[in-house]
Design goal:
182 residues; alpha+beta; DNA Binding (I), subunit A; two-stranded antiparallel sheet; 6 strands; elongated; disordered C terminus
Length: 182
């Protein structure tokens, strides 16, 4: 069961295991966003068995300052950005390679804009040539993953991301109702 931890400002901080959740709860560091989930967790703790399939979102009671860090174009970050999809043919796979759009042999750098996820077949077809030389096209223009997209790690947890987006929508609708009645 993955647990999403939000800052007191509702910004995603990290995804933690349920054991860490127990520690944070025992130290009164977090509160639950959903009361139903809180009740289920409390019942599970009393039964000494945490087996929830539902995503859990908790909010820190104190704000944590997050230093800005430039994300590096690592293999895992490129695959995460490209959603494990070949950027030439669209094939989804966990066995993708990275391809330099402008090959390193021709002066291409290992940057966000020059690296894409690529299947072995397309990588072999392209080789160290430019896209126009082999008549290939990108499905999406590569872009950097920025720290501004708080919680980019949520891409690894689709159920958590969906629960967080639902929470944000309900929070937004609640604040609009308050504004409209004021």
């Amino acid at each position: 069961m993955p647990v999403l931890v939000l800052n007191s400002s509702l910004q995603p901080l990290s995804v933690i295991p349920e054991r860490r959740l127990i520690v944070l709860l025992s130290k009164n560091k977090v509160t639950f966003i959903d009361e139903k989930v809180r009740a289920l967790i409390e019942e599970s703790i009393e039964a000494r068995r945490l087996e929830l399939e539902r995503p859990v979102i908790v909010q820190l009671l104190a704000n944590v300052r997050i230093p800005r860090v430039a994300l590096q174009p690592t293999r895992s970050n490129i695959l995460l950005r490209d959603e494990e999809t070949c950027q030439y043919c669209g094939k989804r796979s966990r066995e993708l390679t990275l391809d330099h759009i402008i090959p390193r042999s021709r002066g291409g750098q290992s940057t966000w804009e020059n690296l894409v996820a690529c299947c072995k077949h397309c990588n072999g077809k392209k080789g160290n040539r430019l896209l126009k030389e082999v008549n290939m096209h990108l499905l999406h223009q590569p872009r950097p993953l920025s720290q501004e997209y708080a919680g980019f790690f949520l891409l690894r947890y689709p159920k958590l991301r969906e629960a967080y987006e639902t929470f944000l929508l309900s929070a937004q609708e609640g604040s609009e109702g308050i504004t409209a009645s004021a």
